[in-house]
Structures are given as C-alpha cells and as structure tokens.
Amino acid sequence: MALRAVAGATASLPLLFALGMAARALGAGDATDAAHTAEDFAFHGEITYTEQDTDRFRSPYTGANSLRPGRGAETTDIAAFIGQRLWPGAEIWINPEIDQGFGLDDTVGVAGFPSGEAYKIGKNQPYPRLQQLFIRESLDLGGVRQDIEPSQLQLGGTQSADRLVLTLGKISVIDIFDNNTYAHDPRNDFLNWAIIDAGTFDYAADAWGYTVGAAAEWYRRSWVLRFGVFDLSNVPNSPDLEPAFHEFQLDGEIEKDYQVLDAAGKVRVTAYLSRGRMGTLDQAIALAQSNGGVPSLAAVRRYRSRAGVGLDLEQRLAGDLGAFLRAGKSDGHVEVYEFTDIDRTTSGGVSLQGARWSRPDDTLGVAGDLNWISGERQAYLNAGGLGVLVGDGRLPHAGPERILESYYSIAALRAVRVTLDYQLIANPAYNRDRGPASVYALRVHAQF
Q1: What is the DSSP code (8-state) at residue 233?
Q2: Distance CA 443, CA 448 (A)
Q3: Stated pTM of the model
Q4: CATH number of the domain that 336 lies in?
Q5: What span, in angstroms and rounded, lies between the C-alpha atoms of 145 and 33?
Q6: CA–CA separation, 111 vs 401, rounded Å?
Q7: Max Cα separation, the chain?
Q8: CA 308/CA 109 separation, integer angstroms
C-alpha cells in the first residue's frame, strides 16, 4: 500500500511544480511574505493522495450499502486556488480541481465515513471540476487593525477587528460554519467525516460538498454572528443542485472567543433548517408494509423541513497542545438530505505538535466519535431501507457507532506532509452483528 501511495503522489508533483512556476511568473504573492503585506493576487496549489484499506473484520451478511472486509481504495485530487483583489476589501476566488478515485465501497458502509477526501461520486479516470467561484467583501466597522495571514482562500493584508464580511457564489458551507482549528481539514488533520465536522450537520451541498448561496458574518469584539442561505441539491444526496432555489437551507451560528488562564478558546453554536422534498421514515415503513415491499423514501417525499443544532468547542491547553469537542442533534424522523445518517453525535480529541520529541512541525492527533440514530431510522434500516451511506439490508441488533481515530503527520519536506492514520470502527452502520473494523490509511499532501 505504501509504495503505491507514494508513487501516486510523486507522479503528480511535476504538475504542482509547474503550477507554482506559472504563479510566480504571473507575480503571485509568496506565502512567506509578511502577513501585513497586502496582496492583490494569489495563486496556491495542492495535491493530496489518500489510500485506505480495511482488515478482514467479522461480516456474517452484507447489504447494498455495507462496508466490506478486506477492501482498499484510493483518491487523488489536484486543486488550484486563484484569488484577485477587486477593490479595497473585496476579492474574488476561483477553485478548479481535478479528482480521481473512490472511497471505500464507493463511499458507503459507515455513517462516520473514514475519509473526508472521498466524495460520493468516484471515477477511475481523472476529471475536472470547478468547485468554488465566489466574491467576498469585508466592510470595516472600526477597531484595532489585524494582520491577515495569506492562505488558500484569503489574500494577505490587514482588516479591522470589527467588520462585516459578505460572501456570495459557489462555496463550501463548512468553510464558513462549524470550523475548528484542530479537526476540520481532511487534507492535513483527521480524516473521519464525523470528526472533521459535526455528523449531524446536514449542510447544503452537492455530491462533492459544494453549493451556491450567500453568507454574512458580523465580527464584534469577541463575538461573531453568521447567517447564510444556500441551495440544496435537487433530490437528497444528488450531484445536481436545485436549479431554481426552491429547495434551500438556512444556517446560523454564534461564536465567542474567550480566555482560560491566558489560554485561548472558542465556542460555537450552529443551527440549520432545510426546506425541501423529503420523506419521513415512518411513512416509508407504513407504505412498504401495505405493499409488501422494501421501504422507499422517494415514494413518500413531500415539501417539509428538517432542522438540527450543534455545539463546537476548541481550547488550547498549552503552546503545543489543543483539544476540541463537538456535539449535535438533528431531526430523527425525516430522511437525511445531504450529509450522512447521524441523528445524534458527540466527538472530541486532542492535537499535539511534535516539539516535545524534537519534531516541531509534526502533529499527533487522537479523537473519538459516538454516533446514534433515532428509533424510526433504526426501524427503517431493519426493514431493508437504505440511507445516504448505510444500509446492511437488516438491522436486528442496533448499537451506537463508535469510532477511534489517531494520526501522525510528518513534515517530510517544506511543502510535503506524509500522514499515517488508523481508525477502529465498532458497530459500523450501527450494526452490532458486523465489525469491529480497522481502517488503515496513508495520506501524502503537498501544497504551496
């Protein structure tokens, strides 16, 4: 596995190098420039190769959406992030990407799926996508000027502490909401879906995780208020967005910065409300019982709402040690629309930099996750229904999905990180009859 992973990533490095040279020729800002140096143009690129393998875990039966023992899968993505300042305070970003590969079992089998690098649609051959294209404007409302570190979707410069930020276009909801310093980036930290984001946050997205919409963020001293409206896909778990915005989602978040014994922390409360054509689980079961078939949510879809709320906490414990905690709950009697089959979740963990063992740029992370489903969803799955990611054909002995993930990220070169990742998944797809499953991963990530 390791040799194939390294070979796959290395084969893409010449393209990344070429992109970097092109950016420099165009005069792109160097990421090593001082943070207060205003950028008018930026070009960043990255390549990520991830390979995962499962062990031969116990599996007395399988269904259409089951994780299968002894399988392997790989994904590769090459992305560019191109930003241009339009006028003071405003910038436009474009994010083209080339993707290839599959998640384990075509990205099904576990509600807390083990790879955030895997999309719900995979292909053997590389294919291009325009993932993001948006305009962001920051309006100065006063306060101390702050340096802005240049990043993949942020031009370097300065900004006021108090400000209003408006974003419009094709974006990722989780680039704005439910962010977390220690668990949010599957290209650099944890991989599991329900650890990098709240598993109950059924955020608006197409099958690749992006949508069209607008968001407003109001920064006032130690508080931030966020609100957004985004387009849902045309049917649940679809690659296509709703063309006329008739199905949509409202997102709201309140964030508070604080200090505990001079250690910085943040707490966020995020809520969503989706409005679209969705089916209820009990109606699908009742229709199947009357017809003598398998429950189908598509047969009982009506225009209705689904809501959820989550708590997100991050806390620095020492200069090189940080911790995070997430918890969430969503409506358990309506079908999941976009993300994954989780009605209640709790996750938490720690992230430690390697200075203590003379590897200051390395990172060690350990986290755990607990996922639950409602009684209605359990009955639906036991009757043979299929969720977004799970469905073993039956579920006679249900239990919470329990996941432990650990990773070690090695700073191999200045711009290259190699990560070893291990996940232990008990009761995959809430099924006590199957597992526990071990998932091993190697990730190679290069960026400039």
Answers
A1: B
A2: 17
A3: 0.89
A4: 2.40.160.180
A5: 18
A6: 8
A7: 68
A8: 23
Q: What one-character DSSP code corresponds to residue 105?
A: G
Output the CA–CA distances (angstroms, integers) from residue 202 to 23, 184, 194, in the order listed: 36, 15, 11
| 3-state secondary structure at position 45 | strand
End-to-end CA distance of the chain: 26
Taking the C-alpha atoms of residue 70 and residue 89, their distance in angstroms, rounded to an integer, is 52
Predicted confidence (pLDDT) per residue in 205-252, tens digit: 999 999 999 999 999 999 999 999 999 999 998 999 998 889 999 999
Is the N-terminal amide bond of 88 cis, ω within 30° of 0? Answer: no
| C-alpha span between 137 and 118 (Å, rounded) | 31
* String of DSSP letters for 341-381: S-SEEEEEEEEEEEGGGTEEEEEEEEEEEEEE--HHHHHHH
Burial of 303 (0-12, 13-18, 19+ CB in 10 A): exposed
Distances (CA, A) of 377 to 194, 229, 332, 387, 435: 18, 28, 7, 9, 20
What CA–CA distance (Å, rounded) separates 20 from 48? 16
Tokens at residue 174, please?
Answer: 């989780």
- Alpha-carbon dihedral sign for residues 329, 350, 205, 394: negative
- Round to whole Å and give the CA distance between 367 and 112: 13
Residue 294: how many other CB atoms lie within 10 Å: 13
What tokens does 10 get?
Answer: 């290395």
CA distances from 384 to 52, 64, 92, 104, 282 (A): 28, 10, 47, 21, 13
Whole-number Å distance between alpha carbons of 19 and 366:
34
The set of residues, in sequence order, having a beta carbon less than 8 Å from that of 264 and lying 6+ positions away, is 257, 258, 315, 316
**Segments forming the whole domain that contains residue 236:** 2-447
CB atoms within 10 A of CB 21: 10
- Structural domains of the chain, count: 1
What radius of gyration do the chain's Cα atoms show?
22
Are 108 and 66 in contact, with CB atoms under 8 Å apart? yes
Q: Indicate the burial class of 64 (C-beta count within 10 angstroms; 0-12, 13-18, 19 or more).
A: exposed
- The answer to whether the CB of 52 falls within 8 A of the CB of 115 is yes
What confidence tens digit (pLDDT) does each residue in 354-393 have? 999 999 999 999 999 999 999 999 999 999 999 999 999 9
